[in-house]
Amino acid sequence: MTTLDKLGKLKSLIENCIYYEYTKAADPIGSGAISKIPFAEFGKELHETGGTRIIPLDISEKLGCEGPATSPALCANFVHILAGEELSTNFNATSQMFYVMRGSGRTEFDGMDIPWKMGDFVVLPIGKETRHFADTDSAFYLVHDEPLLRYLGAKADIQRFKPTLYMSEDSLRELDKVRKEADAVNRSRISLLLANKE
Length: 198
Prior knowledge:
The protein has 198 residues and is an alpha+beta fold. It has helices at 3-14, 22-26, 28-31, 45-48, 60-63, 146-152, 168-180; strands at 53-56, 75-81, 86-89, 95-102, 104-109, 112-117, 121-125, 130-134, 138-144, 164-166.
């Protein structure tokens, strides 16, 4: 290998190097390395009208990333399913969570039948063919991390937890306990984090 060949290989190895002072890189928004998430409003008419469909809350053009995306790492969606209809989803995501804003029905995931109703949260692992069936006119707020995996060039194929249903009545009961705790008045918010043993 000639010296010129060696220099050419070395140049191809170092041509993409960038160096950041640590405190600027640790705050990528403040340093200007990435932009702030722009404000966007998506009205309820999106999920209260029209047919059965997924409605991505997409601001990818403003973010300067491939879409659909609501942030560089997440995509939020409204899902509207008319009574008696079904909708299939399949995201390349490590997980997806949906909150049932109205309606009732069930979701088929990996051989499981998961019932849901207004106020329930459902969390599903990895992107697989998922079928949602509505008994009544239904709407979800659904979030997944496909934009992050798309950016990383990764495929989610390892299931890290089982599908999990957080029932409305259980969530409200736990939230009421938190609200009634003696030090609740000293907190900046009364809220719960939904977690999973796995």
